[in-house]
């Protein structure tokens, strides 16, 4: 009995760690950081067999930066494309948050089958599965938003508003200098 309680507690802690790993992996995905070697993510997701773990070492094509690129990077005026790591990867990187969710679904169904002796899914398990579907929906929606480009009209309007703001800003600060 003691061994079963210990295994049940270990399963609950593992599932909670998977939820935390999903949140951290989702954060890194939104930042276009595709690998798993980050300090906050590695301990949470290194035990899972994922495509991201197989592509653990960044295998990007090394290229020399030109003089202008070094100057712009030093001044932080025109940073490089954050998706460059994903485009230049030598191996498939996968979608780590989605892979973590794919580990979580069977985990819940296995736990419900063990706890009920094969008697089906109860209210708690149904609630957990509904919340996992909500996390999946958030992941898909965020990917859709981050991969959809802005229309040309919006891009032009944003750039014009930015230029107007930059031109008018000194006149707004004149009264502070007096």
UniProtKB/TrEMBL annotation:
Keyword Lipid metabolism belongs to the record = no
Entry GO terms, CC: plasma membrane
Compartments annotated for it: namely: Cell membrane
Keyword Ribosomal protein attached: no
Single GO MF descriptor: chloride channel activity
Query: What is the protein's membrane topology class?
Result: Multi-pass membrane protein
Broad class of the protein's primary localization:
membrane
| InterPro entries according to UniProt | YneE/VCCN1/2-like
Q: Which UniProt keywords apply?
A: Cell membrane, Ion transport, Membrane, Transmembrane, Transmembrane helix, Transport
* Domain of life of the organism encoding this protein: Eukaryota
Transmembrane feature ranges: 150-174
Which PANTHER family does this UniProt record tie to the protein?
A: UPF0187 PROTEIN YNEE, VOLTAGE-DEPENDENT ANION CHANNEL-FORMING PROTEIN YNEE
Q: State the name under which the record lists this protein.
A: Uncharacterized protein
